[in-house]
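so i finally got all the pieces together for this one. its four components total, 378 residues if u count the protein bits. some of the lines might not be protein, just check the labels. i wanna see the whole assembly predicted at once instead of chain by chain like last time, that was a mess tbh
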Amino acid sequence: MRTKDQDKLQRIKEATVRLILREGIDGASVSKIAKEANVSPATIYIYYDSKEEMLSKVFKEYSRQSYQYLVQHIHPQMEAGELIEVIVRESYTYFVENEEIFSFVEQCSRCPTLCEQVCERECTNELMTLIHEYQRDGRIRACSDWNLWAMIFAPVRFLAMKNKDMACSCNANLDELVQMIQSVFIRHS
Amino acid sequence: MRTKDQDKLQRIKEATVRLILREGIDGASVSKIAKEANVSPATIYIYYDSKEEMLSKVFKEYSRQSYQYLVQHIHPQMEAGELIEVIVRESYTYFVENEEIFSFVEQCSRCPTLCEQVCERECTNELMTLIHEYQRDGRIRACSDWNLWAMIFAPVRFLAMKNKDMACSCNANLDELVQMIQSVFIRHS
DNA sequence: CTTCATTAAACGAACATTCATTTAAGAAAG
DNA sequence: CTTTCTTAAATGAATGTTCGTTTAATGAAG
């Protein structure tokens, strides 16, 4: 029996993500993706049942990835200010260095038909648990999970999205953002 | 001479926005939009040169609208804390009450092919000028424009987007968010 | 080792459908 | 009448998906 070529599957995923950065979610057709991946359109249907299933699976996978990346850079002994700094800085780094994936995930997460299938919550359990500990003993300000996201990730994602439009001073912006977010969650700073 | 039917144009815009909320940006075809607006596809091409032009014009118009709405509720005599509260609350209200428009704008603003044509900056001059005054005399914390957006609008938009997923406690979340954002921009609170 | 079925991956071509857009003719208003 | 709006119908191109075939990897038989 012939075995599935994992490299080919990887190429399909990357092509999807690359094309959606270039042409937007409505410009990424199956045939274009296939061409970009050097693969026959029919091959895609060996790995996925439909275009929709493909998008939502790739979406889910790459959603997870950014948080997994983040978790690697975090350890529970960190001081509160450092924790926030690392989360913000590393998120930003990841988003900028993986702009294809980032743009893809951003687009998918605004698309009602896609994000009702992908629960962001389950991608982030590990990170949440850690932050909850810091909140419980008062090292960082307690708040609802929604607001935790709203005040940490929404700002970083916004800044990362605007990265291209910014002048050369993007590092200064990031420094400032770190301080601002810290001032929300940590007293006397 | 027969006059262009402005009501028809309005119906087209609303149908566009409604359909994109339901089916996402890639599910909104010209014919579906036409049907939704009770209009022939050809009629759309009387008002717009192409689908792309149409999307970007409607996008631009509705982008402006949310800020115009906001400006109505703001006056320069406001105390700093109140200013931020009003911006956050009224933004949220607008987004939730106009979820079709909101979802449409959110989707468009993540689509690379669309947002390179629409400069968000020019929609917000009036609001920016006002905030800059507050920043200049220290009533609210000075920061780069990017971070101003990142720490005010990105969080509200995020919360508004998650509004549907939230339990009944969405008002409490909003209250908390207002406080958190105030604590970034205003000392001793 | 060499054959040779067997199995599933992979493909290019073709499918029906839908797409964005245009045409040609009718309807409405001046 | 003239002018402009409006549309149903038609356009070719492109869409997502399937078909029939070929290719490559495996294990059994000689």
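The CA atoms of residues 12 and 166 of chain B lie 31 Å apart.
The mean pLDDT of chain B is 92.
anyway lmk what u think
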